[in-house]
Design goal:
Radius of gyration: 56 Å
Number of domains: 1
Number of helices: 2
Shape: rod-shaped
Keywords: Membrane, Transmembrane, Transmembrane helix
Largest sheet: none
Helix content: 55-70%
Order of helices and strands: HH
Structural class: mainly alpha
Strand content: under 5%
Length: 147
């Protein structure tokens, strides 16, 4: 590399190149100074290939996520009418449950009234007299005259 300085300050690569420090390659063999253009192109193509694989994988993951969200939305929209029907049924049941204590109360009051009428009627009734027929009197046995 030439010692010509440009307007821009030297970057780290130029500084390292000037100090003579060896940089190891990605595979652990060779140095920066010993790398030729073919090695650099090979490493660059590997990095670009890795980047392409990353882009494809990211695209697949994004497509799966978008598809999953679409499926979730479709399921929610299809079950929304069922949920509304169930909500109507629950509202109907809740009104019946709210009316239940009133029905129980009216049934208990009716039962209480019936029992109190029965008790009052049994107290006010004249005692019943049951006549038992008197036993029939048997005539005394007749003695036959002796002859």
């Amino acid at each position: 590399m030439s010692n010509v300085r440009y307007f821009n300050p030297p970057n780290n690569t130029e500084q390292i190149d000037q100090t003579g420090i060896d940089l190891k390659s990605g595979d652990g063999g060779g140095t920066y100074n010993g790398m030729n253009t073919t090695d650099l192109h090979t490493r660059l193509s590997r990095m670009e290939g890795g980047w392409t694989i990353f882009q494809v994988a990211s695209g697949i993951v994004t497509a799966v996520m978008v598809g999953g969200m679409g499926l979730l939305l479709a399921v929610q929209l299809s079950t929304q009418s069922n949920v509304k029907d169930l909500a109507g049924q629950v509202d109907g049941l809740s009104s019946q449950v709210e009316a239940l204590p009133g029905k129980i109360n009216s049934n208990l009051m009716e039962l209480n009234r019936t029992l109190s009428e029965a008790i009052t009627a049994s107290r006010n009734q004249a005692p019943q007299v049951i006549l038992v027929p008197a036993p029939a009197v048997q005539p005394p046995p007749q003695v036959a005259p002796n002859k």
